[in-house]
Target: FMN reductase (NADPH)
Amino acid sequence: MQVVSLSGSPSPRSRSAWLLEWAHKHLAPRAKTARQLNLRGLPAFSLLTADFRDPDLCSAIDAVLDADVVLVGTPVYKAAYSGLLKTFLDLLPQDALAGKVVLPLATGGSPVHLLAIDYALKPVLGALGARHLLDGVFVADSQMPPHDTLGYLPDDAVLARLERALAPLAAQWPALPHSTPSRLPITESA
Model:
């Protein structure tokens, strides 16, 4: 299986990036290929002008098209996923997520943004052809306080929700463990 992670956070260190990396680190060792795409690293001009001649932009789009599993991480601002993620998703072909397993992960300042996954992000992912959308995981900032060495320290309920979100892949991917380590530090990714 090929796994790709899309980070829609404009910040290099963020809760949504931490969640995405946690999920990615648990899937990557079992994947044929695993790639992390930090959308903030794509050339802004090419991204905003849909310059399909840009090799970095084309490589990112191809990574999504070639993937079997797509992890999507985003902060929630004003009850919607990030503009950075929206800009990238707009460049994908209409059926880009057809036949793929998609796991949305989101963070927000408070639980009032909980439904952003279901009412903002999932409809767009569905419009891109995603039919196998796993239950998303939303985490409020208070559930993941900053930590000096680990980046963030999610509470046990968050970790349990992450494990449950990945569980459907275990049936399709027997090598995926049902129980995973609870704490992984976040690192800067290219």
About this structure: The longest strand covers residues 69-77.
